[in-house]
Amino acid sequence: MLANRKLILAHFWLAFGVFGIALTLGAWQMFIRSPIGTWLSNPELYYRSLTAHGTVMGYVFPTLVAMGFGYAISESALEQRLVGVRWAWTGFWLIVIGSIMAVIPIAMGRASVLYTFYPPLIGNVFYYFGVVLVVVGSWIWVALMSINLRVWRKAHPGAPVPLAMFANVAGSYLWAWTAVGAALELLLQIIPVAAGLKNTIDAGLARVFFSWTLHAIVYFWLVPTYIAYYTLVPRAIGGRIYSDTMARISFILFLVVAMPIGMHHTFADPQVGAGFKFIHSAFTALVALPTLLTVFTICASVEIAARLRGGRGMFGWIRALPWDNPMLLALAFSFVMLGFGGAGGLINMSYQLDASIHNTQWITGHFHLIFGGAIVIMYFAIAYDLWPHLTGRELFDVRLIRTQLWLWFIGMIVTTFPWHWVGILGMPRRMAYFDFGDPAIAPQALSVTFSAIGGFILLTSGILFLVVLARGMRAPQADAGPYRFAIAVHQPATVPIALNTHALWVALMIGLTLTNYGYPILTLALTEGTSVPAVYVGAQ
Amino acid sequence: MSAEETHGNGSASAEVAARVERRWATIAVIIIVAMALLAAFAGIHRATMPQPRVETTDPSRIHLSGEFVESNLGSVLEANGNVTVRAIGQQYSFTPACIVVPVDTPITLRATSADVVHGILVQGTNINTMLVPGYVSEQLMRFTRTGDYLMPCQEFCSFGHEGMWGKVRVIDKTEFADRAKGGGRLSCVGQ
């Protein structure tokens, strides 16, 4: 039962449209900095492109996917018409206006500050206003998800909240709170300077505020993917969720421990002491737990499907899986990339190992593997799965879908593995070009070339993805039936209140954030004489 | 009403599921605790840890007075045989652009930024620190072989970032001691 299909389609089309543009920019960047391209006469163009790529891929694209998918979950899992449709459209248009407002100064070269802002570099004030509008638009979605769940609870007192909606609301709360860090940085520090009301800024404090957002935002990107793992994959391949409880615990753990860990991004920074760095490192280790639980539960769920299809033996069941099913293919690719990316993540979060790879191309490789790889490939799968329900037409290009998923997987591996390697060699990130004529840099030329080729494989895959969706809009009509989510082997009749509500966990999330960030932020804010003159981008 | 009651003969399989889950969760927790303990051990016992103290400096005055005035930048041989290197990063270069240090000697790098956020990374080593304006970065270093190392800026510092490459020249101990005889601050200049 999807009553507001136009609303959901609008979110997805805008998400994938801007994704296509940002992907093209990404491939161009790879080409221009590799030995197969020629140096830009104006390297500043590279940073414009990088700012646009990062801003779209980091803020606009995943937020729109989470919102569109969230509305779909709210309507279909709760079997209830969306409450607050007019507000939902308001949020959507705020994001459209915000994106346009941000992209104009970027294109003019007045906001080349990359998507993590980098004070005391200060871009045009409209860039920051644009980002704020995108976030405010998404906060409307957070409120709507919460309200819709509340309406449903009133109608179904005491009943277990469907897993997909429970996870969706947890993800929306995670987003609402993690965005506060960057919001404080923008409102208290950056925008007053960008608007010309102040001309100094504490760069160290700004980096701490941003780290509040910068890591938990990854888990917000991850939540739709994990919802797909738990509630779409088993259904699509004819299995069951191994454990409904384990799924709820995983999402709760993300909500609680994803937040207070961002300072591992500042291990090499001089403005944070060693004590808080260690605490954040230990907490980051903890956030591996929900992923390890999920890997287990999903493998077990997939095994159930295989055994139902007649699979036998310790590993023989793997052969019995429906490997031509796009959802399974996407899951397998996603898990492989999550495995490599996660292993790299354990190195990044390590108090000591981080020094070998901090701010090198390794980091770029790591988060492209996790976000661009493991997460985005499931966004594709979600779109493929939902499309017939949104358009009322069948997606018949199954072979093209498989090719697209294969290309994305291969492209991501070819792009990111060489990045990890040159990162270990000490290649810094965010460089418009490298002097491959320098004998010390020349050996890295081959790896950089491979990455650029990977970038074009990814671009090809992205184009195929858009083609499949566009063709799906014109396919013959077919009734896809109601949109369903997987059910558990032991579907709970009742759920303990702690696993059915979010209040306790939101309180813990806020409490832990305040203990892990409160003291460092207060100390930095009270330290005198650390504010430095702003450096305005594009000013003559 | 429990899951077992609703599923009748499903209770045996529910027990198996719960047991297997518990085992997996235990393994996961053990992995995480082991990682945290390893980090604590390496930090406390081997004293490998990120910069412990927070020190501030006023970037608008570093050119005029204090330890980062231009005449004080570069390498200096301390009385105890250790070496201290002072450097600053600015758009788009390091001062000194080439740092000279002796091999097999404990070195303390003290650095800061004169304008925006920069970073110092020495290729082929674990030397890697941020330079945030307003704050002093301190890093201990020790090189085990002589030669030239590339030292790029690893943090985006605006349009000239890609051109910001410094160098570290690691030379023989006695040669360094010779050059340091007259006192003063050393860099690669004159070599």
TrEMBL record, chain A:
Q: List the molecular function annotations (GO) for this entry.
A: cytochrome-c oxidase activity; heme binding
Pfam families assigned: COX1
Range of residues in the leader sequence: none
Q: Under the cellular component aspect of Gene Ontology, which terms does the record hold?
A: membrane
GO BP term (any one): aerobic respiration
Q: Where is the Cytochrome oxidase subunit I profile domain?
A: 30-536
Keyword annotations for this protein, in alphabetical order, are: Electron transport, Membrane, Respiratory chain, Transmembrane, Transmembrane helix, Transport
Its transmembrane ranges are: 12-32, 52-73, 85-106, 126-152, 173-197, 209-233, 245-263, 283-306, 327-347, 367-384, 405-425, 445-469
Protein name (record): Cytochrome C oxidase subunit I
From which organism does this entry originate? Bradyrhizobium arachidis
TrEMBL record, chain B:
Q: Which residues form a coiled coil?
A: none
Which Pfam families does the UniProt entry name for this protein? COX2
Q: Where in the cell is it found?
A: Cell envelope
Any GO MF annotation of the entry: cytochrome-c oxidase activity
Q: Which UniProt keywords apply?
A: Copper, Membrane, Metal-binding, Transmembrane, Transmembrane helix
Q: Which CDD domains match?
A: CuRO_HCO_II_like (cd13842)
Which SUPFAM superfamilies does the protein's record reference?
Answer: Cupredoxins (SSF49503)
Can you name this protein? Cytochrome C oxidase subunit II
Biological source species: Bradyrhizobium arachidis
